[in-house]
Every structure is written in structure tokens, then in C-alpha cells.
Amino acid sequence: MEPVIEVKSLRKTYKKRKTKELIQAVSDVTFSVNRGEIVGLLGPNGAGKTTTIKMICGLLIPDSGTITINGQNNQKKRLKSLRHISAVLEGNRNLYWRLTVRENLEYFAGNRGESKKDVANRIDELLVKFHLKDKEKELVNRLSRGMQQKLAIAVAMLAESDVILLDEPTLGLDVETGYEVRELLREIVQEYDRTIIISTHDMDVVQDLCDRTIIVNKGKIVTDDKVENLLRLFEVRSYTISLSALLSEKQQILLDQKFPDYKYTPDTIGSKLEIDLAKSEEIYDLFDILKMNMTPVESIDRGTINFEQIFMKIVKGEQQNVLVQSS
Ligand SMILES: Nc1ncnc2c1ncn2[C@@H]1O[C@H](COP(=O)(O)OP(=O)(O)OP(=O)(O)O)[C@@H](O)[C@H]1O
């Protein structure tokens, strides 16, 4: 499949105004996105997500590297390439607060040679889809944050560009509205054949919505893989073992050496071990340690793991060697 977006060896350094200190916000970032994919750009604060998004939509110029959108270099063929992209940055900022919902949509629909009736029909369709029909005459500054966010996405849809970039689309939304926005985004991809890149801290967005996730940390990509692959990979490695005895001190020292991040919970009648294995063969090392004292094993469960825990593990660097660019 041909990629819609190709980002190669991207770098961006900021210079702090007062101290003149250089900050390497993005260093050597390379990835591509295929048509119809929803890709989550994930990372801790300051990882370089917004900088990357801003470079893709042409708001920032990279120090080096290239960005190609539908085969067009976004610096050499600026207008042609940027026509394929809409961006919703910092949520509701790209709306006119003193215009109504409908007026905003009319304004952004602009003059593209369509008849007034066609524009009105398209706006009506979006108002219904985004559950904003009964708010069409409301001023934007009177809307809730969730409604403003939905309107901002509807505005991005109007441009009919192939790619929509979203920076933190669920930030500050309550659980219900966050869910509603996620559902809308899913429908957009399915019904309108759009490609979406979402920068987010919201693990539900990644787990529910994204096909793939690119995790960045300190300006570099640490993981680029399908969400289902990561879930499977970590589920296989994460074990909870119930024992009907306590572990000896020697056993605990050996576990410490072999599995530094294991968790041991002694109880009155037994104990519990929670352990992540870097390779599945390591289970035999674990059994060797348990066998030393013939510690009786009551049950072994493969741990369920959510995306938040996976993210923490990856960002902490525990699984780095295995995961970098594994897709
Ligand atoms: N205009 C700027 N001038 C100086 N430094 C900046 C500027 N914008 C961002 N930075 C710095 O660049 C780094 C990357 O910032 P960026 O906003 O891209 O990260 P992010 O992953 O989007 O973070 P967050 O999740 O907190 O929004 C950070 O260290 C940030 O402080």
C-alpha cells in the first residue's frame, strides 16, 4: 500500500529566547502512514509530538529531514501538499468564538465553486453526524468544551482533505464526551476514507481507535507497531503466579537478580508473584528458582495488561531492544 505520509529523518531544535539554550525537540524521526490508517502518536510530556505534528502540517520548518504528503514534498510543493491535510491543533482554537456553529462551518466551507445548496447540504450532514444540529445557532463561546471539540473536527472534515491531524482531541473532556469523540473519529475513518494521526495522552484513544501506535520519547521513536501486536506481546510476557508457600530469602535474592522488576506479595497462607518475562524461555529460570525449595505452585495466569501499563513499560525503556521499529 502506498503511504499517504512519509516522514524521513526529521529534526527540530528550539533555542530558548532568554537563555539561548538549545532544545532538541525532535531528532531523527522516520515513519510512514498508509491511507485509511489511524495512527496514535504517543509519548510523555515534552516528547516531541506537537512539534512533529506542526512540522507535518507546515506550521514549523524542520532543521533537516523530509515530509512527503501524497507524494509531494511539503516544503518544495507547499500548497499542493498541504491541500491534503487538515489539522485540529489545541482543540477549539481554530474556531471563531463570536460566530455561531453554523456560521463557523459556512465560513470554513469557503468558496470552492460549490452551489450554496450543496454547501448547505454538506453542513447539515455534518451537523447531524456530529450531534450539533440543535446547537447550530449557538455562539461557539457558549458551547461546552466537548461540543467545541466536535465542531473543530467537523470543520476539519469540511476541507475534504485525505489526512486529519489531531492534537489531543480528548484533552479535558469528560468520560462520556471522550467516548463520543472517539466514536465519531472511528466513523469518519470508516465512512469517509480518511487517514488520521492523533497525538494523545489518552490510552483509551489508542486502545479503542488506533490501528498502530508510534511512541516517542525525548524526540526519538521508541516503538512503531500495531496496537494489537503490542497488547499480545505484553500479555504473553506478563505472569501472575500464586504459590501456596512463602519464598525463602535466597529465592528472593535470585529473583531480584534475574527479574529486577518482579513484584512479590506474601500472604498469611501463601504468596503471589507478578513477573514480566523478556523472553518466554525465561519461565524455565523462574521454575528453577521455585524448584529449589519445591515451592508449591497453585496457579499460573497470563496477566491481563492494558495499554497504559504497556506505555509505561516502553517509555521506561524496559523493552526497548525488542520493540524499536518492530513493525
Ligand atoms: N516554541 C518553543 N520554544 C522552545 N522550546 C520548545 C518550544 N516548543 C516546544 N519546546 C520544547 O520542545 C520539546 C518538545 O515539545 P512538544 O510540545 O513537541 O512535546 P509534546 O510531546 O507535544 O509534549 P506535551 O505532551 O507536553 O504536549 C519540549 O522540551 C518543549 O519544552
UniProtKB/TrEMBL annotation:
InterPro entries: AAA+_ATPase, ABC_transporter-like_ATP-bd, ABC_transporter_ATP-binding. Keywords: ATP-binding, Nucleotide-binding, Transport. Residues 5-243 form the ABC transporter domain. It comes from the Bacteria. It holds the Pfam family ABC_tran. SMART domains: AAA (SM00382). GO terms for molecular function: ATP binding. PROSITE patterns: ABC_TRANSPORTER_2 (PS50893). Belongs to the ABC transporter superfamily. This is ABC transporter ATP-binding protein.
